[in-house]
Every structure is written in structure tokens, then in C-alpha cells.
Design a protein that fits this description.
The protein is α/β, with parallel strands linked by helices. It folds into two domains: about 120 residues, Conserved hypothetical protein from pyrococcus furiosus pfu- 392566-001, ParB domain (Alpha-Beta Complex); about 55 residues, Arc Repressor Mutant, subunit A, CATH 1.10.10. A hairpin with a 2-residue loop joins strand 3 and strand 4. A five-stranded mixed beta sheet has the order 1-5-3-4-2. It contains twelve helices and five strands. Helix 5 packs antiparallel against helix 6 and helix 7 packs across helix 8. Helix content is about 55%, strand content about 10%.
Length: about 230
């Protein structure tokens, strides 16, 4: 329990140290590593601005709900103060599960991150997850690109993937909301979504329906798209 208040783990620190354009690591290490945990009313905390449109897997949320019911909230969430409210930074799934369960107060550590620092920490935290949500990644890197002028090359370094893969991930956000929901809930794979991401919305929906109805593989989906 010695390091329970630490915000970042070693791999997250390495990622940010290598690719961040800010002094986020010294800031976190010096100012927040031993910050006290406080309890905040849930009503004062809002979802993260950059991820509000990103859904969370229904199964994933159920797992968090069951964990809270059985064990309570074991680790504090990380929030930042914005004017008269707080915004979730780390622990978004836990936060939303708490809202579903109508929990009144949750333990938090309050940090003073800039918008760019928040995006970098959110991205690194998302990539740390065993099976991360590619839709969340898409929203985060789009904000880094559009708000802070990150190039596809810089984003590819952050993701440790090719620039073409970065473009493919960003392209997902052109898909209709119902298809993105299918990706989040593992009804469609990333490969399926990528195959239909450049289609017009009505055609993408038609192909998505075919995939779900006939359990098409990614390769079958690609062939179907190519034959349109």
C-alpha cells in the first residue's frame, strides 16, 4: 500500500517522458505523488470533456459495478478542478459505474493538469489497459491533433504504430454512432470497422447489418466493400 497515492506507474511515466511536449512528469512527481486522498460528492464531478462521446463497454461497466458492490472503491480516482466542478482524469469507468450505483461520495486525488497534460495522461492510461478501447484512443489523438497540432508522426510515436494506422484509427470517428457502439461492445472488431469506415453512413450501416447477420469475417467484409 506504500505507493497507493501515486498517480503514474513506471510504464506510463516512460511513455510521457519520451513523447510529451510538456513538463508533465516533473509536475506530477513533485506535486502529486504524495497528495492526500479526499472524498468528493459525486455530483461535483463530471465526465471527461475529451471522452464524453466515447462509450464504455456494457460488460466492462457491469464488471466495475460488481467490483464496487463486493469490494467498495479500493483506489482513489484522479480528478482536476475546473471552475466550480471537477473533471475525471483517471478512473472514468469506475466513475460511471459509481454514477449508475448512485454512490454519493468517492475518494479522489485532485491534480492541476493542463488540457494537454490531461490528454497525454488519458492516452497513456488507456493504452495501459489489457484490452483498450480503440474508440477512446481515436477521440484522444484527434484532440491532440486538432487542439495541440500533433502530427501523425508524433501520434504514431505515442501509439507505437505506423502513421497509416493512426489515420485508420482517426477515420473510425466518421462512422455512425451505432457502429462505434458495436465496436466498443465487441460486436464488431476494429478490422470490421476499419473496412467500412470510408463508406457513406447509409452504406456503412447496410454492411454492418450484413456483418452481424451473417457473422462475416474481416476478409469477407473487405471483399463485400470492394464489390460495392
Amino acid at each position: 500500500m506504500k505507493n497507493q497515492n501515486r498517480i503514474i506507474n513506471k510504464s506510463l511515466k516512460n511513455l510521457l517522458e519520451k513523447f510529451s511536449n510538456t513538463d508533465v512528469i516533473p509536475t506530477i512527481e513533485q506535486n502529486y505523488a504524495h497528495e492526500s486522498i479526499i472524498n468528493l460528492p459525486l455530483k461535483l464531478i463530471e465526465d471527461n470533456l475529451y471522452l464524453k462521446k466515447a462509450r464504455i463497454s456494457e460488460n466492462n461497466l457491469r464488471e466495475y459495478e460488481e467490483s464496487i458492490k463486493e469490494n467498495g472503491i479500493i483506489r482513489p480516482l484522479v480528478v482536476r478542478k475546473i471552475k466550480d466542478h471537477y473533471e475525471i482524469v483517471i478512473g472514468r469507468r469506475l466513475f460511471i459505474a459509481c454514477k449508475i450505483l448512485n454512490i454519493e461520495e468517492i475518494p479522489v486525488i485532485v491534480v492541476n493538469f493542463s488540457d494537454e497534460e490531461t490528454l497525454l495522461v488519458l492516452l497513456a492510461d488507456t493504452l495501459e489497459q489489457r484490452s483498450y478501447n480503440v474508440v477512446e484512443v481515436a477521440y484522444l489523438i484527434r484532440n491532440l491533433r486538432d487542439t495541440f497540432n500533433y502530427t501523425n508522426k508524433e501520434l504514431s510515436n505515442l501509439l507505437k504504430q505506423s502513421t497509416s494506422q493512426v489515420s485508420n484509427i482517426l477515420q473510425l470517428l466518421n462512422l455512425p454512432k451505432e457502429i462505434l457502439k458495436d465496436v466498443v461492445n465487441n460486436k464488431l472488431s476494429y478490422g470490421h470497422a476499419k473496412a467500412i469506415s470510408r463508406l457513406e453512413n447509409d452504406k456503412a450501416i447496410l454492411i454492418r447489418n450484413e456483418i452481424l447477420k451473417n457473422k462475416l469475417s474481416v476478409r469477407q467484409t473487405e471483399l463485400l466493400v470492394n464489390n460495392l
